[in-house]
Known about the structure:
By secondary structure, the protein is an alpha+beta fold. It has helices spanning about 5-15, 95-105, 110-120, 160-170, 205-210, 270-280, 285-290, 325, 330-345, 440-455, 480-490, 540-560, and strands at about 25, 55-60, 70, 120-125, 150, 185-190, 190-195, 220, 225-235, 240-245, 255-260, 265, 280, 295, 305, 310-315, 355-360, 385-390, 405-410, 420, 430-435, 465-470, 490, 525. The chain is globular and about 75 Å long.
Amino acid sequence: MISAGTAGSVIAARLSENPAFSVLVIEAGSSNQNILAAEVPFLGSSLSPNTAVTWNYTTTPQIGLNNRSIPYPRGYVLGGSSTINFEIWTRGSIDDYNRFADVTCDLGWSWDEMFHYMKKSEHLVPPTDNRSVFGEVDPSIHGKKGPVQVSLGGFVSGMDRRVIDTTRELDCEFPYNVDMNSGYPLGLGWVQNSVSSKGFRSSSATAYLTPAMERDNLDVLIQTRVTKLVAVSQENGVPIFGQVEVAQTATGPRLLFNATKEVILSGGAINTPQLLQLSGVGDSALLASLNITTILNLEDVGKNLSDHPFLANHWLVNSTSTFEKVGRNATLTADLLAQWNATGTGLFSDPGANQIGWKRLPSNSSIFQQYPDPSAGPASAHYELLPVNGFVSFVESTPATGFFMSVVTNVASPLSRGSVTLASSDPFDNPIINPALLESPFDIYVMVEAIKSAKRFVEAPAWKGYIMQALGALNSTIDEDLAEYARNSTSTVFHPVGTARMTSYFNKDGVVNPDLLVKGSSGLRIVDASVLPYIPAAHPQACVYALAERAADLIKTAWS
């Protein structure tokens, strides 16, 4: 197993259930143990960027962001990005999964077949305030025995009530959705998070890997980087992968580990294509330019990178109970942390957003005369709305004075596609990452429509006397101004997928077959978000967990 990230930890835990299997997990990062911010949901934002638990990548200058380069953190720790993410738990739509099934010609990836794995990965638990959640979630569609604990936010504020009131006052535009994880996410409702009933982050490390580490047939090696996948032989021109080369420092010795069954790569949408290319698997022209011998010519490796553009829109509000109150008061911060330590309750038991909304463009939008609809279908969103009780941004610092509300707008079904390529043949050099954020005119159109939707949202009667004024260019009513504002203020919500995409067995494009084995090879399988042929209209961790659960069954069956 290469990487103990979101998917890798699932695979390690599930395969080691069989005592006949011997599993070695090699993780480049550190342990997740004794990292307070990785336990306290509210402190999750302090885990990235530029910390010891992230890869600290940076993108190329982004054409769609007025040539800005932005931080691009990925988890560098047991649990991978599930240890540093913002814990939002959304599955996506029925159309997302059915499109996976269509492009792979494998009904096993359809919503109906994957629903079992969605439930298998999760355990719906009460929120930390132990309130009744009747009408806020549909328990019948959730797992009750899975490893990842999933709950609703446990600290409800007055702003949350205004959000829900808006769904009644503007029910045509913002209809209430009792549970968007039904496969039909459109509307607005309470968000579910990977947070335990005791107020702790529930990651793949805590939920899957740690409980399995007592098994004699599972070993986890940390702070060790896989530098190359090694083909040990060929059969009829097909490379057979059976070794991995590792190192702990750039100048340290290289060691080899042998795989008697197969090598499973779970490095994620950035590290997986990087390691494939370093190993001679990729576009032969690119590899030749770096003096890397091509073992397997797969032109799609590192291409098809898709991510969700993130824009936080801000309003000054008539309140003193926003997150700014916490950030400016060290005593209050200490008290809230003490409350969390003592009881697992309070503001610090929440990731930060208690509702989420998913919306589509009108079917007669002018943009569809120029571009095809990139969404998976009528149940999938074009954009996301995420109200937050405070000033949040990955681009701007929180102002020193004033109290704020944010409505985050994300492009949920982007048309833009980017890439991950090697900067050199040195495995310790960062790859070149180009997510192509807002590069397609379709995506900037959607972002502008999302901004306008957010502005209409806060014009509901529920916000009268609360919203004081919009900040900066958000005040403009001119589309061109809003587009320029979006290009200057958008970043990413850290959801890269697609760089080793899955296609059907008979399709020569793509990187893996529907069983996740790398095309044209033997002994090498990929299980992570890189195999998703399209980005789901969702925060993708729940999708990745379900993907890994099915992959574990495919692997068990292959070696039964």
